[in-house]
Design a protein that fits this description.
The structure holds two protein chains of two kinds. A three-stranded antiparallel beta sheet of chain A has the order 1-2-3. Chain A is 76% helix and 4% strand. Chain A is mainly α. Chain A contains nine helices and three strands, in the order βββααααααααα. Chain A is elongated. In chain A, α6 runs parallel beside α8 and α8 runs antiparallel to α9. Chain B is mainly alpha-helical. Helix content of chain B is 70%, strand content 7%. Chain B is built from eight helices and three strands, in the order βββαααααααα. Chain B has a three-stranded antiparallel beta sheet. The radius of gyration of chain B is 26 Å and the shape is elongated. The chains are: A mainly alpha, B mainly alpha. At the A-B interface, α7, α8 and α9 of A face α6, α7 and α8 of B. Chain B: Pfam families: PX, Vps5. Chain B: Belongs to the sorting nexin family. Chain B: This is Sorting nexin 6. Chain B: GO terms for molecular function: phosphatidylinositol binding.
């Protein structure tokens, strides 16, 4: 799946999919989708799948500032960057969705990829303003506030949850520093450009011919350095920073799964206590000798016994799914981090090599000063 | 205190002369002052011994510089620019902040940052020593200034020169002197010189000085951005290290490796920034000060020319009125002599300045390029 050609009109990126899977109608196809469509997909998936304990990848954040600029039609570098950022993020989001075996089977996903026209997604309010992370945290608080505290028989879940929280914290710290690096790199770009101009002026003033030329050459080298810094800043951002941002949100999604499991447990427990109450009610009726109400009570007990069994089964199943999901996630994460960081380091290396060429060309000029 | 090791960043090419060699052999940083050990080796008969050392502080260097500037005899020379005041304020502040924030970071991070800041402090220290040394070497290399009595006292007198910083009155006098100077400067710059050489030099120096000033400021900013980026890379390395030590999975091992790479990168980037600072920023700063000193020389020559022209006018008037003619003649001769003397030595000084400048830029630009290549090739 690739997301290409974001167009400003209605801001509909074109979605190009390539597949060899039999379930799709054709091998290569493309559709146009709006950003709100992506949000809508997430809504649908999370409602269905997270009940089973699936980690549903979250879509990229809404950005009022970014979108307004683009809508207004500003062509400055920051809005160009925003569009590219949005495009890349949407692409990663979809790739994660389709690489998940269960989600790929989901009819909503198929529809999203294939159908020409999608009905306008309306229930995207949850993801507006507050953003994805706040939503998860709010839900988490709600779970924690519930009166019945879960006594964990399986320490695996507790340990994992702690690990996830730790990791999220570490990644946040790292993200803050990488963001700082991106900013300083951009500053370096700017100050290098100014310095280059200044050196060129100085070279013009210098009345020794060879020195004058060398200074002009130095100015050119610095201009090339600015270019390098620019590329490096892009690499810092698009490869490293975005990777961290994605995983911070994915870890939050994972926390959401754990919370779902707790909710499932709570549902089971509540059903058990309701069943207990029904049994007590039946006993009271037996005592009070009210045969007509007795049948109803017996029916209710049967109903609730079934529910208890169902909820227990659900709880066990969600537990298994969460375990599976976590393992799968960890594999994906390791792969992702490896490939992205290797890409990042490669870019750094390339940069260094070009730097060498620039200075090698300059050295003889400097030596020629007489 | 820190002893003064190894080769200094001397950014002027000077011939060392066996008859008088001056260097700063040691330096001590105390609280808010730096004590320089000025070491002299000389075969000149003026000194009591052939080799001796004294301890001097920054104010005493300034006193020596100012005594040259105020000496009418030296009006025709480019007075070597005074070294800037040692400034550890920023560095000290950072070290203090680090101490306050010790509780909020891991032991590793703290140790690392402390080492960073200490290295920075040491670098500033080395620089200030180098700049004070360059000043003395320039004086020692100058055929006339090296014979100056104050200079000899500075080198030899092993007691405190009791040169307190300028008091309020003196500072005010300086202020007015500078105001007059700049007003004159405008006036003088407007008068076209008959001598082509000096006319060219005036135009050249005015423009050059401004552009060197701009280049110096911009280079400082660029190097600061570079240092900031290197600091971030340092913190990224620490952060990745923490992530890597959480567990012993393959991913964690990978994080540790990447952390190492970032650490290496950071070291290289820091060195690059430091080298740019020494070879480029310091060079520009130095020539900013020297070009100002050269401008000051031109100004003094212009003043002497104005005095000469006024003396001529006064002589004409005296002759016309036939009053105080002898007095006017003597005065005019003195002014003429003074002006010619300054012009002659100024010409040579300005030619030497150019030679020194070209040599210094060559040396530093070559070294800069070589260092950049050296650092970039480390894999």
């Amino acid at each position: 799946v690739a997301v290409t050609n974001p167009e400003k009109v209605g801001l509909c990126p074109r979605l190009c999919s390539q597949t060899s899977l039999a379930m799709f109608r054709s091998k290569v196809f493309s559709v146009r989708r709006r950003y709100s469509d992506f949000l809508g997909l997430y809504e649908k998936l999370s409602v269905k799948q997270s009940l089973h304990g699936c980690i549903v990848p979250p879509p990229p954040e809404k950005s009022v500032v970014g979108m307004t600029k683009v809508k207004v039609g500003m062509d400055d570098p920051s809005s160009v960057e925003f569009v590219e950022r949005r495009r890349a993020a949407l692409e990663r989001y979809l790739q994660r969705v389709v690489s998940h075996p269960s989600l790929l089977q989901d009819p909503d996903v198929r529809e999203f990829l294939e159908r020409e026209e999608l009905p306008r997604a309306v229930s995207t309010q949850a993801l507006s303003g507050a953003g994805f992370l706040k939503m998860i945290n709010k839900a988490s608080d709600a779970v924690n506030k519930m009166t019945i505290k879960m006594n964990e028989s399986d320490t695996w879940f507790e340990d994992k949850f702690q690990e996830v929280e730790n990791e999220e914290q570490q990644l946040r710290k790292l993200q803050a520093v990488v963001d700082s690096l991106v900013n300083h790199r951009k500053e370096l770009c700017g100050s290098t450009a100014l310095f280059a101009k200044s050196m060129a002026m100085l070279g013009n003033s210098e009345d020794n011919t060879a020195l004058s030329r060398a200074l002009s050459q130095l100015a050119e080298v610095e201009e090339k350095m600015e270019q390098l810094h620019q590329e490096q800043a892009a690499s810092d951002f698009f490869i490293f920073a975005e990777l961290l941002a994605d995983y911070i949100r994915l870890l939050a999604a994972m926390r959401g799964c754990f919370d779902q499991r707790v909710r499932a447990w709570q549902r089971w427990q509540e059903a058990q206590s309701t069943l207990q109450k029904k049994r007590e009610a039946e006993a009271k009726l037996l005592w009070a000798n009210k045969p007509d109400k007795l049948q109803q009570a017996k029916d209710e007990i049967t109903e609730w016994e079934a529910r208890v069994t169902q909820y227990e089964r659900d709880f066990d199943r969600i537990g298994m799914t969460v375990r599976k999901e976590v393992l799968r996630f960890e594999k994906e994460k390791a792969k992702d981090f490896r490939s992205q960081l290797v890409k990042y380091l490669d870019a750094m290396l390339q940069s260094k090599q070009r730097l060498v060429k620039f200075w090698e060309a300059f050295l003889p000029e400097a030596k020629a000063i007489a | 205190g820190e002893p003064h090791p190894g080769p200094r960043a001397v950014n002027v090419d000077l011939q060392t002369d066996a008859t008088l060699q001056v260097d700063i052999s040691d330096a001590l940083s105390e609280r808010d002052k730096v004590k320089f050990t000025v070491h002299t080796k000389s075969t000149l008969p003026n000194f009591k011994q052939n080799e001796f050392s004294v301890v001097r502080q920054h104010e005493e260097f300034i006193w020596l510089h100012d005594s040259f500037v105020e000496n009418e005899e030296y009006a025709g020379y480019i007075i070597p620019p005074a070294p800037p005041r040692p400034d550890f304020d920023a560095s000290r502040e950072k070290l203090q902040k680090l101490g306050e924030g010790e509780g909020s970071m891991t032991k590793e991070e703290f140790t690392k940052m402390k080492q960073e800041l200490e290295a920075e402090y040491l670098a500033i220290f080395k620089k200030t020593v180098a700049m004070h040394e360059v000043f003395l070497c320039r004086v020692a290399a100058h055929p006339v200034l090296r014979k100056d009595l104050n200079f000899h006292v500075f080198l030899e007198y092993n007691q405190d020169l009791s040169v307190r910083g300028k008091n309020k009155k003196e500072k005010l006098e300086d202020f007015f002197k500078n105001v007059v100077k700049s007003a004159d400067g405008v006036l003088v710059a407007g008068v076209k010189d008959v001598d082509d050489f000096f006319e060219h030099e005036k135009t050249f120096l005015l423009e050059y000085h401004n552009r060197v000033k701009d280049a110096s400021a911009k280079s400082d900013r660029m190097i600061r951005s570079h240092k900031n980026a290197a600091d971030d890379i340092n913190r990224i390395a620490s952060s990745l290290y923490t992530l890597g030590t959480q567990d012993s999975t393959d991913l964690c091992k990978f994080f540790l490796k990447v952390s190492e790479l970032f650490e290496k990168t950071r070291k290289i980037e820091s060195r690059v920034a430091a080298d740019e600072d020494l070879k480029l920023a310091d060079l520009l700063k130095y020539y900013l000060r020297e070009s100002q000193a050269a401008k000051d020389l031109l100004y003094r020559r212009s003043r002497a020319l104005v005095d000469y022209e006024n003396a001529n006018k006064a002589l004409d008037k005296a002759r016309a009125k036939n009053r105080d003619v002898l007095q006017a003649e003597t005065s005019q001769q003195l002014c003429c002599h003074k002006f010619e003397k300054i012009s002659e030595s100024a010409k040579q000084e300005l030619i030497d300045f150019k030679t020194r400048r070209v040599a210094a830029f060559r040396k530093n630009l070559v070294e800069l390029a070589e260092l950049e290549l050296k650092h970039a090739k480390v894999t």
